Amino acid sequence: MAAPGRDWIVFGFSTEEAAGEPGPAPGPRRLESGPGGIRRVWPAWSYAVVETGAGLEVRSAGLRRRLPGWAEALPSETHLVLRGAAAARAWPRAEAVRGELRGAPAWSRDLPPGPRRPPPLPLLPGGFVAPRPPFFAALPGGVRARGLVLGYEHVLALGSAGETYAWGGGRHGQLGHGTLESALQPRLVEALAGVPMRALAAGGWHSASVSEAGDLYMWGWNESGQLGLPSKALAQERAEGTAAGEEAAGDTGLTPHQELSAAEDTEFISIQAFPALLDLPQDLEVRSVSCGSRHTAVVTRGGELYTWGWGKYGQLGHEDSASSDRPRRVQHLVSGGLRAEEVVCGPWTTYICVMEPQGPHSPPSSTAAPPEKDGDNPSPAPVTLSSPGPAQPPDPATPPGRMGQG
Fold first, then answer.
1. What is the pLDDT of residue 23?
2. Does an H or E element contain 257, and which?
3. Is the CB of residue 238 less than 8 Å from the CB of residue 248?
4. Most CB atoms closer than 10 Å: which of 43, 64, 113, 278?
5. Within the chain, what is the greatest distance between any pair of CA atoms?
């Protein structure tokens, strides 16, 4: 049963907007709970899969469908991968959203008997799965991964001793090897050698890791400030907004001329090809990290939520649509007395598991149709690895020549 006072809220793009319908009011939305509460969330761009005490269910615009008999999900805009006790299978997105999994799957792999709580998807015995053809890829024998996350073009793996491996597309520095070259095979991120990691996250074209000591490292593409490093595009937007008389989020207190001069003098970073240690305000230690398409969110060991990067749909939780290249604390949680326990970013959304206060403060509840029928899944333990998965939204800032992910 879910812990008392534990709840999930979400900021950003809604499934209604993805379906071309009017979206909810701006601001935080409470996820409609299920039997035993919500335990885990796996968001795609236009839908999400959640785990309740009764098992998995898929949620899209106004609809909820049970997925009985499955324990874990890996969604995308082309396919949904599900794992059960004896098999992993993939179905086309349209069938999965309707809850119609009766026909032959697009892909299937039988699983041998294994540990009661296996490593989280996308890891499978002998390799890993992606929610698009050809689905399964083997891991070289020299890589013993206890966790793995997927970006749009790259893969990160967490080794058994806390080491970090990266491979795939590298033209935005997302592999952390110091170059913009791709890598066909897993390669140790040498800049992090000797620093044991406890969590990894892969965004669209950026990467993050959290050390056992609570330090946060970021690398890859910084076009929207998703690394928390100075972004020239955002500095120019702030200066132009101030010059036009707009109230800019994170106002520096400078005149328009001073803003422009500061932008010219700042050393901006568009691509960070080596992992960079990112300091949060007050040297806070990080417990977990998650990356969206072009934004990043962390939970501190004190239960605070900080976000930065692309914010067009309010996914940063700062009650505006501004982007930010500076980590900012989400004040909504502070003012409501909410303690962040976990964060999971979708491509354009941020889902937060919070501990509710002993009082009336809570965000408004969303509405959804009741589930069609119950499931009977057991619940694996929560995980600290996170990525948006290859959910592949129609991102307006897609770099030229991006690999097709569905």
1. 86
2. helix 256-265
3. yes
4. 43
5. 66
Q: At 282, list the tokens.
A: 């007050």
pLDDT at 122 over 90: yes
Structure-token pair, residue 36: 């035993």
Count of alpha carbons within 13 angstroms of residue 134, beta-carbon side: 4
Provide Rg for the chain, Cα atoms. Answer: 20
* Ramachandran bin of 240, using left for φ above 0, alpha for ψ from -120 to 50, beta for the remaining angles: alpha
Cα separation of 70 and 66, whole Å?
10
Number of Cβ within a 10 Å radius of residue 319: 15
Of 321, 295, 294, the closest CA to residue 308 belongs to 295
- For residues 155 and 160, give the distance between their C-alpha atoms in angstroms, rounded to a whole number: 16
Indicate the average pLDDT of the chain.
85
What percent of the chain is modeled with pLDDT above 70?
80
pTM (2 d.p.): 0.85
Please name the residue that has the structure tokens 């702030």: 238
Residues 6+ apart with CB under 8 A from 260: 239, 243
HSE value, Cβ hemisphere, 13 Å, CA-based, for 364: 7
265: left (phi over 0), alpha (psi -120 to 50) or beta: alpha
**% helix, strand, coil for the chain, step of 5:** 10, 35, 55
| Three-state DSSP class for residue 175 | coil
Task: With cut-offs at 50, 70 and 90, classify the pLDDT of residue 386.
Answer: low
Q: Which helix (H) or strand (E) holds 138?
A: strand 136-138
Cα 155 from chain centroid? 14
| Encoded amino acid at 145, one letter | A
Residues 244-284 have pLDDT tens digits of: 555 444 444 445 444 445 445 568 999 999 999 999 999 99
Yes or no: say if 209 and 394 are a contact pair by the CB < 8 Å rule.
Answer: no
Q: Compute the distance between CA of residue 232 and CA of residue 288 in angstroms, rounded to an integer.
A: 28
User: What are 141-157's pLDDT values in tens digits?
Assistant: 789 999 999 999 999 99
Position 27 scores a pLDDT of 87
Query: What would the pLDDT profile of 83-120 be if each residue is shown by its tens digit?
Result: 999 999 999 999 999 989 988 999 999 999 877 788 89
